[in-house]
Amino acid sequence: MITDRSIDQAYSDLKATCDGRREDYFGLLYLEREYRVPRERAINHIAFGGNDYGDDGFHFDEEKRNLYIFQFKYSTSYAQFKGSLQRLIEVGMERIFTAPNRDDTKNQILLQLRACLLENRALIDQIYFRFVFTGNPDEAERSQVLDSLRESLEDKKFLIDQFFTGREVQMVVDFRSSSGRVGVLRTPRHDTTFTLPLSDLVVVKGAEGQKMHICFVRLADLHQIHTAMESRFFDRNIRYGLGESEAVNRAISRALKATIIDRKEDPSEFAFNHNGITLYAERVEQLGNGTCRLTSPRLLKGAQTVTTVASFRRINKDNPKLAEGQEAYEAIRVLCKVITDADQEFVTRVTINNNRQNPVEPWNLHANDRIQLELQDKFRDDVGIYYERQENAFDQLSTEDLEEYGIREDAKAIQMLKLTQTFLLTDGQISRLSNMRSIFEEEKIYEQVFRQARLKADSRLIVLCYKAERKLRKLSEESLERGQAKYWFISRARQLHWALLCQGLLNSKNLELERIPVRFEHSRHGERNCGILAG
Fold first, then answer.
1. 276: burial class by Cβ within 10 Å (0-12, 13-18, 19+)?
2. Which of 5, 253, 254, 453 is the most exposed place for a label (fewest CB within 10 A)?
3. pTM of the entire structure?
4. Annotated domain spans of the chain
5. Phi-psi bin for 26: left (phi > 0), alpha (psi -120 to 50), beta?
6. pLDDT digits (tens, 9 = 90+) for 405-438
7. Cα separations (Å) of 32 from 13, 16, 45, 249?
8. For residues 291 and 272, is the Cβ–Cβ distance under 8 A?
């Protein structure tokens, strides 16, 4: 077992030659213990002193034909992996597999790893990206932030395919405890690349190398991607489908029925009446004959179209006219923009701007911000409650999904807008509640309300203040019973009443916080006062 004492000893023995931080020696001891790598060899396979690209070490098992690329954290908190994963996604994968010479200050671990890849190119069958820490890997598997970053890392699989041209090499991402405990092993995905006809393709280049591929895509192909990827297709979008009650969705359903079932409209008319969709893809390859290969596509705009098509086909699955109209269905095309070679900030901006023409509230546009993902993890880890950052996401979850995510079955979701109101009230910013749009439209105000310090607050107190609003009506009625003339104004001061109730609760010496259900494993708590919600 790796202990503080063994790490201290290794650090004392080797710091003169290897330098680095004390925590770097956790990885060294792990290679020695887990893979029986001799110390003199393991030293060359560990990054000492930082300057890494999200890779702290590696090991090639010639017998198993596995290459392991490690990130080590001598910590029980899975949150420590977030920055490392981001570096690996943004620059690490490219440096390792395609462009190692772009960095003039290449560290030794990158040179060693690249040499191992070149020397064993024909022998490697699987590449494991293994994230090792001292905590519970099941918690890491349930993290929304890590899941999002893991998806982005898996989307970089095409770089591995480029390096191992001509043969399939599997990619596996997993989390492990140094004690030997293993998280849920997720089957490597094979549905990230799609070949489909894209007609009238035009490519427009952006100022910083971004590309926009403008074309027409078949509705049937979009449905195929959605069926294969399921909810992952919406990862970069601001919300899920809004349901059949929305006017836009009803109009799309009517058009599909008129074209496929009733055969009253020509399939070509659909594109004239449709606003078009926007995708992001890691790569677009033109294969000739009017076909292209999309790698890891994600929907930025068009959720209503995609979900309505799925609903339409499900409702009409037993209708013989659906099969009879298959040719018309496959002839329906929509205008499509595919964005590539763009960073996350640029993609987020494109998503927001492409959705402005639809009735989208400004808080919806922040659904995929890092702080919102962090809050989703926080409420799940601390109190087992789902944070609905994406509109209508909670309604899409089954009982099995909730159990898998670690969400209490009896708990209702926390909604982004109401949580924002809770933060404003406890910050004493009651006047801002009169213009909620400005909170999400003005960057400085948004960053102040959703500052990183919120993640340090006691989640039980946040939920307590959030749910206090439900008791306002009853408390107002009780106040009026005590004096109609004295408390006549209380029904007109709901927000002030809510703020005062929160203040009273947080300052109460009789508040039995221990009776509130909680699962604190990663949070740090502050003092119990109104400021705690601000961190």
1. middle
2. 5
3. 0.64
4. 4-177, 193-354, 364-534
5. alpha
6. 888 877 889 999 999 999 999 998 988 988 998 9
7. 15, 20, 11, 58
8. no
